[in-house]
Design a protein that fits this description.
Blueprint: E1 2-5, E2 12-15, E3 19-21, E4 24-26, H1 32-37, E5 46-52, E6 58-64, E7 72-78, E8 80-87, E9 98-104, E10 110-113, E11 117-123, E12 128-134, E13 143-145, H2 166-170
Antiparallel strand pairs: 1-2, 2-10, 3-4, 5-12, 6-11, 6-13, 7-10, 7-12, 8-9, 8-11
Length: 177
């Protein structure tokens, strides 16, 4: 696996090294030893799947607060997304910086999202599925969010969402610390 640091402190793109032959390909996507060698948390307490029917579906921006910090490893197993993170940790040297990466079934890369960093995505294809591995269990009382197009973040989304739920559409503006 290859580990590439992004512009948000602690965020890493994890790229598999594929071995191809006449059958297709094989690639390791998780190795506790390699993750630890790169200073990444190796705990996995929960895994979840997000399936999205339509291209243009937007989910985010979500994170859990300090009461139940949640680190995520996010991979697109079917379809494609523009995956976006925003550093909402006031003490971070990259506070309010964001990064956007294409995750899709073809490239197989995963995004390591540090705890306290907002996460969201816009699907680029119909029938897109995302696999999450998290270091802690989802805690509804610790769930936080900000509007996907909040001006404090300055994210240039490639398109307006076609499908977005009421909660994600109506989050209040993020309060800059």
């Amino acid at each position: 696996m290859r580990f590439t640091e992004l512009d948000v402190a602690g965020a890493v793109l994890v790229s598999p090294e594929r071995h191809e032959d006449e059958r297709g390909h094989f690639a390791r996507t998780w190795c506790a030893e390699e993750f630890a060698e790169h200073g990444l948390d190796t705990r996995v307490a929960q895994a979840s799947v997000s399936f999205n029917h339509r291209a243009g579906t937007l989910r985010g921006m979500h994170w859990q607060d300090r009461a139940a910090p949640e680190l995520k490893l996010v991979r697109c197993t079917r379809g494609a997304v523009l995956d976006v993170i925003v550093d909402v940790r006031p003490e971070s040297p990259t506070y309010l910086a964001h990064a956007a990466v294409e995750l899709n079934e073809d490239n197989g890369v995963a995004l390591h999202v540090p705890a306290g960093v907002a996460h969201g995505f816009l699907t680029r294809r119909d029938a897109t599925e995302i696999l999450y591995q998290m270091t802690t269990r989802y805690t509804p009382a610790a769930a936080r969010g900000a509007r996907w197009n909040d001006p404090a973040f300055g994210i240039s989304w490639p398109a307006e969402p076609v499908v977005i739920n009421e909660r994600d559409r109506t989050y209040p503006d993020y309060e800059v610390a």
